[in-house]
Amino acid sequence: MNRSGLRLTAWIGTAMVAGSLTLSLLLLLIHYLPAQEFSPRLMAVAGMDGQLLLLCGGVALFGAALMMGEIRKNPGSWFRYSAALLAVPWLAFFFVAHPILSGWSEPKPKGSGAQLSLLVQNLWYRNEDPEALAQQLLARNSQVMVLLEYTPAHAVAFKDAGALGQYQYRWELVEPYGHGIAVFSTIPFINPQDLELSGSGVSMELQLPDSSVELFAVHFNAPTSVWDIPRWRSDFERATAILEQAGPRTVVAGDLNADWGHIRFRQLLAQADLRDAQDVRSVGFATTWPASAHFPTLLRLDHVLLGQGMELNSFERLPRNSSDHRGLLAGLSLLEPAP
């Protein structure tokens, strides 16, 4: 390539690095500023900030590669300084995504206390094949199932599929649209209490042998419009206040309509001393929605959150089914208190 071609390619690379740098800085601002709650679109961007920063890093790396021909021809060229800026998007990515990546190096002790398996699935109130989904989930034989958007059609489908015989202990709130919720369990539970969320939620105490676990099954209001965002915010505020009072043997399972990119979610984890199961075992971004489309899921809306007295032994993101969310299956155990 002649000299003019090298310079043109270098200028294109510079534009790519500069664009990636600018977008990375904007994503960092959205990640940390409350302005992310101004609109549903900003909230969606905040929810994907890790993936977008990774994309910025890739574009910046390619842009720097385009500059290398000019830099080799002229080592003193200022293009070398432009190429060095490719580090900024990557630093921003690792800074934002470190909780998601930290599970790779975290030790993986196995709890020595009682064990249980828990499945959480948003069923989708518009599901066109609830019968098949009920059969698929019951075949998993999890000890506890948290089912969201539990409509009359889903209630009938689970009954016909044999859920009443498989699960002796049940709590059900059957509602049209997205506010229904159900907990099926082979483990006895006591004290079910409505959490009085704008969305839906219930807490209960699972009675394991010689111990108990506080289970919170939740579905926070979806912030799909500027009018819904205050309701989503109120769900986080109320849930955070409740979970701050919960003990270390706590499990939160459900669709929080948020992930690590959202300030409210990070505050919930910090103030209630909880860990996200997806991060504990470092399963990547483990996004769960939208699963009804033919392209990869984009947002991690569904979660299993663990108190410090719980240990994660296994984790699986369920295959796509007839819902618009992918379900989660976690194997849990209790950590014995230190002597």
Salient structural properties:
339 residues, 6-stranded mixed sheet, 40% helix, alpha+beta, 2 domains, 11 helices
What does this structure look like?
With 339 residues, the protein is α+β, with helices and mostly antiparallel strands. The protein has 2 domains: 3-104; 115-334, Deoxyribonuclease I, Chain A. The protein is 40% helix and 22% strand. It is built from 11 helices and 12 strands. It has helices spanning 3-32, 40-47, 49-73, 79-84, 87-101, 130-138, 152-160, 163-166, 229-243, 263-272, 277-280; strands at residues 115-122, 144-148, 169-173, 181-185, 189-194, 200-208, 211-219, 250-255, 275-276, 302-306, 310-317, 328-334. Strands 3-4-2-1-12-11 form a 6-stranded mixed beta sheet. A 6-stranded mixed beta sheet has the order 5-6-7-8-10-9. A hairpin with a 5-residue loop joins strand 5 and strand 6 (200-208). Helix 9 (229-243) runs parallel beside helix 10. The termini are far apart.
Q: Outline of this structure?
A:
The chain has 339 residues and is α+β, with helices and mostly antiparallel strands. It has helices at residues 3-32, 40-47, 49-73, 79-84, 87-101, 130-138, 152-160, 163-166, 229-243, 263-272, 277-280, and strands at 115-122, 144-148, 169-173, 181-185, 189-194, 200-208, 211-219, 250-255, 275-276, 302-306, 310-317, 328-334. The chain is elongated and about 75 Å long.
